[in-house]
Amino acid sequence: MNGLALLERHSAPASWRIALPHSAAAVPVARALVRTALAELQHGADSDTAELLTAELVANAVEHTVGDAPIELVVELLPTGCKVEVHDPDPAPPGNLTRPADREPDPWQEHGRGLLLIRTLSASCGHRPTESGKAVWFRLPVVPRQRQPRCRPRPAS
Prior knowledge:
The protein is globular and about 70 Å long. The protein has a 6-stranded antiparallel sheet with strand order 1-2-3-4-6-5. 25% of the residues lie in helices and 27% in strands. By secondary structure, the chain is an alpha+beta fold. The protein is built from 3 helices and 6 strands, in the order ββααββαββ. The longest helix has 18 residues, at 47-64. Helix 1 runs antiparallel to helix 2 and helix 2 (47-64) runs antiparallel to helix 3 (114-121). It has helices spanning 26-39, 47-64, 114-121; strands at 7-10, 15-20, 71-78, 81-88, 124-130, 133-141.
């Protein structure tokens, strides 16, 4: 499968659902969709964190599932933040997503930190079975807008 198969936008709460190719090319597309979705919230969740965690979920789905069935990304914007789900065809639960690992990741290895990042940086995370495999998800809260300093006119000199 090359490119995007499905893009839907629903109303209240806003949500997006997109089928992504079962390849590494899915990661930047997923990041872009999350960035676009969060830009629509006036007081959005942290876009950088959402993009990072989405990239981890999509990369895990590509790397740890067999076959070429599409991976599905679902982004839901809620008044309290956002929820991101990645659906894949493998029903097996994702490693140590909801519980700490038995040991710390090896600092010299390239892999092994994705689920730790998701556990640590999200407000909550988990997985659930679906009709065609599983959905792995995380939630991020709305980040309050920082107070903007009021500009005062300079006194005339």
